[in-house]
Amino acid sequence: MTRFALTLEFDGGPFMGLQRQSHGPSVQQAVEEAVLAVTGETVVMHAAGRTDAGVHALAMRAHVDIEKDFAPFRLQEALNALLRPAPIAVIGCVVVPGDWHARFSCIGRSYLYRIVNRRAPLTLDRGKAWQVGGPLDAEAMHRAAQALVGLHDFTTFRSVNCQSASPLKTLDRLDVRREGECILVETAARSYLHHQVRSMVGCLVLVGLGRWTESRIAEALAARDRHALGLNAPADGLYFTEARYTAG
Predict the structure, then answer these.
(1) Under 8 Å between Cβ of 56 and 240
(2) Number of separate domains in the chain
(3) Catalytic annotation on 52?
């Protein structure tokens, strides 16, 4: 049995999320079916993150165990051929030790949220970013975001459907910057609560629009109450960008 670590890039638009779902297509289902077609083996794909419907990935790490002997490059090419035309690409494939786990060995996860700050309709970025028409103050958003960095109770920024045992999470960084008409929000942490990133971004946009003061982010955090949340950003602009490991 050989464990292969896969790096996946995908457009989350057509999927109900990364994990298998009974009510629609998923990234996991597509990859597992491709592996079955290539190897004749039924596998279970484990991934570093559990992205929601509509969330994208630039470099999601995952793994599968395969009994037959395959060169990583051959497996990668075969999977990509069978995944077409689904918007999923295997952009990396390597052999890892049998005790390496895409989810449980992961020591850090990073996300990017893209906002296009303009009034004109989106064309190329439709479904790939959140369009906000009113002018956004990215510097105010960044200053307000620093209240969320560190170890906190993120109940306010947690989905009511979150299954995590605790609302306590440590946010390593939350940076906001402008590049032309785009506002980029980058965050890193060991793990996140369900909808945490989207909830934080939604409230930061209220700051950027001037509807919230910068201090209200800290006040919402301290409330530890989902009702204190101002806005949950849509899935379109969210990208899983990196999974970090000590090795593999």
Answers:
(1) yes
(2) 2
(3) yes
Domain at 156, CATH number: 3.30.70.660
Angle formed by the axes of helices 27-39 and 72-83, to 10°?
120
Tokens of 211: 């509807």
Provide the token pair at 195.
Answer: 């909808």
Distance CA 165, CA 113 (A): 26
Quickly state the pLDDT bin for 165 (edges 50, 70, 90).
Answer: confident
Run of H or E including 76 = helix 72-83
For residue 248, pLDDT over 60 is answered with: no
* Catalytic choice (11, 52, 153, 175): 52
> Which residues, including other chains, have CB under 8 Å from residue 2's CB and lie 6 or more apart?
65, 66, 67, 69, 70, 95
Distance CA 100, CA 77 (A): 23
Strand 182-189 to 108-116 pairing: antiparallel
Q: Cβ contacts of residue 71 below 8 Å, gap of 6+?
A: none
Rounded to an integer, what distance in angstroms lies between the CA atom of residue 198 and that of residue 238? 8
- Total-model pTM: 0.95
- Domain termination residue (choose one: 71, 96, 121): 96
Three-state DSSP class for residue 7: strand
- Residue bearing tokens 């794909």: 45
Of residues 105, 102, 98, 104, the one with CA closest to residue 2: 98
Sign for the CA dihedral angle at 124, 54, 153, 106 comes to negative
Host domain of residue 88: 2-96
Q: What is the mean predicted confidence (pLDDT) over 79-107?
A: 97
DSSP structure class, residue 181: T
Cα 85 to Cα 247: distance, rounded to the nearest angstrom? 32
